[in-house]
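Bumping with the actual sequence this time:
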Amino acid sequence: ASPETPDFIINGKPHPIGLTSRSNAARDPQQHYGIPKTQLISPEDELIDLREEQVTTAQAETETDWVMRGQTDKKPAYPSTFRIKRNRPATQGLLLIYPLNPKVAVLQNRADRLAGKLKPESRQISTVPVVGIAVSFPQIANDAKVKYFANEQFKTEYEYPEILDQDDDDPTP
């Protein structure tokens, strides 16, 4: 911990508090700050309010899922989101608030960057605070599914990617 990122004790474990850095994946990174829904939440954050036995069960189930899919070369570092939600009590949703660093890495050509040809550039995208909000809902047996719609102006103005509308699927084969 440092004065810029002091530790906050949650369930007896220290957690640094400070700005969260995420890459800007917006189509127009000069005007917008875009983060895919799967990249806002840090894997360990979704575990923060679970009891140790819930985390252990979710991890074991995730490892079993990997083996069933033929991924036996290594074990997952964290339980999958699917297994976390299955082990979260039905009455216990989790609100995650991320104060985001306004100086972000702007994603460029992914293939070139992965090949080491390009490095992301950093750019200050805002002079006002940027906050990311995520909610982790438990999976509830026989719950009623609800679909939400965004109006066309929202989709056009923010270049809303259709992939965000896809359902999260059960990772088991």
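The tokens above came from a reply further down the thread. The longest strand covers residues 94-100.
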